[in-house]
């Protein structure tokens, strides 16, 4: 699910979808740094 939210956040042209994905990530992790750490740990981003 996290990968899907991240992909929506960076690729979606629909502002509402991007905003929702961002809220979901922040709700799950609490900070942008925590999101980035998770994405790196699971090799979703480098």
From TrEMBL:
This is Excinuclease ABC subunit A. It comes from Lacimicrobium alkaliphilum.
